[in-house]
Amino acid sequence: xxxxxxxxxxxxxxxxxxxxxxxxxxxxxxxxxxxxxxxxxxxxxxxxxxxxxxxxxxxxxxxxxxxxxxxxxxxxxxxxxxxxxxxxxxxxxxxxxxxxxxxxxxxxxxxxxxxxxxxxxxxxxxxxxxxxxxxxxxxxxxxxxxxxxxxxxxxxxxxxxxxxxxxxxxxxxxxxxxxxxxxxxxxxxxxxxxxxxxxxxxxxxxxxxxxxxxxxxxxxxxxxxxxxxxxxxxxxxxxxxxxxxxxxxxxxxxxxxxxxxxxxxxxxxxxxxxxxxxxxxxxxxxxx
Length: 288
Known about the structure:
The chain is an alpha+beta fold. The protein folds into two domains: 2-9 and 187-287, Roll (PH-domain like), CATH 2.30.29; 44-148, no CATH class. 27% of the residues lie in helices and 40% in strands. The protein has helices spanning 13-42, 132-140, 156-182, 276-287, and strands spanning 2-4, 44-47, 51-55, 61-64, 68-74, 81-88, 91-98, 102-108, 114-119, 124-127, 145-147, 188-191, 195-200, 203-208, 212-218, 225-232, 235-242, 246-253, 259-264, 268-271. Strands 5-9-10-8-7-6 form a six-stranded mixed beta sheet, covered by helices on one side. 25% of the residues are buried.
């Protein structure tokens, strides 16, 4: 038995960068979903002798009472538009704009009965305490107190749906890309006593010599069109269409040039062993 490695096998190191970027792209939504759910469960509004405290998970907002100009209740704000932030059932948070106020920082459980706090230096803040009139009275009379947010829908159903999409996506992408990163280093072509064997990753393919109708070394023109599998620098793996090579093409190769093309009655196979001339010569000897 002769065992041959592919030509120029190389680990797809650049793919690790792609894996990292993809993972970051999926992890960021998970982080923001967690932040929103945490913020909603922790949300509350405190008025102390010196400050107004807006509690929202990791992002507590502290407003000095000396900096507050006043507060206004908007029963039903109009022209609500999110600039940056969250809009989920039961949580409206981030930079928003209302027709009545212009831009403001919003911490709300519903888009109505919004208390707008105006400050001299920090801009406008919108909140939805459970008792907005009591909150505004405390603010106007130097009172103090703690207010829960107004009742609103739970963000958990939407959060769970989003997590149910993003987490499996992260796992799938990471597993698939990790597989293809390592795949070129596992490819082996074997000439055994009765078959040409192609191995790599989870693939183990045996082509009996009796089923092979011909083999040749090609420098095919044009390029392949991937039907299924992977096509990237240093790896062509799966089903392809390549008119100059042959029908029903299966490529298990590390480059496009110097293909050893093996034909059977129903399929065409393209492989790229190191020292292809010597490999083809030995294969043809076994076919004769």
